[in-house]
Amino acid sequence: MANLDLLYEAILKGKQNDAVAITEAAIAENILPKTLIEDYMIKAMEEVGDRFEKQEAFVPELLMAGRAMKSSLNLLQPILKQSGASATIGKVIIGTVKGDLHDIGKNLVASMFEGCGFEVIDVGIDVDSGKFIDAIKEHNADILGLSALLTTTMPYMKTVIDDLEKAGLRDKVKVMVGGAPVSENFAMEIGADGFSDSANSAITKAKELLGI
After folding, report:
1. What is the CATH number of the domain that holds 192?
2. N or C: which end of the chain has fewer CB within 10 A?
3. pLDDT tens across 143-175, in order?
4. Domain range enclosing 142
């Protein structure tokens, strides 16, 4: 019998090979993917996120936990598709806005989103509004996450929101913004739906916006 507490521990500690081995054992025993994801995997990511917020864990730990979670999820996705279920609770397009080449913060948030059950489409860095709009249309996204680390690139977030309006997509997607210089006041001024100052709070805000 697979010890599922070890799955929680493997993801929490970022042990990718252990997470895969325990997930494979659980699949062989026909344990429901939903049980693995909701009761162990997501809880492990939430715990590592909490530790990160309290500065008891750091960027490498968060990224390693996200990688371990993703490896386990990859094994479960085919089973979920066969059963007609979905492992995702929402689709997120995420990217760093035009003129900005920073991606560590974006990658952290993307890892947390994936770890907590969202499907993430990362469109990269230096992304213009057209690319964001194309991705939203292609993937029918629920949330658009815009990141900026430079004060000079922050205003482009408003450009993206204005262009979403012009494309008739503004009411179809929730826009979240974040990055070191970004504040809640700035988010409100440019018409964003949400702001977060950490990977963990981004998940909380996203769930709130989607009514989860």
Report:
1. 3.40.50.280
2. N
3. 999 999 999 999 999 999 999 999 999 999 999
4. 91-210
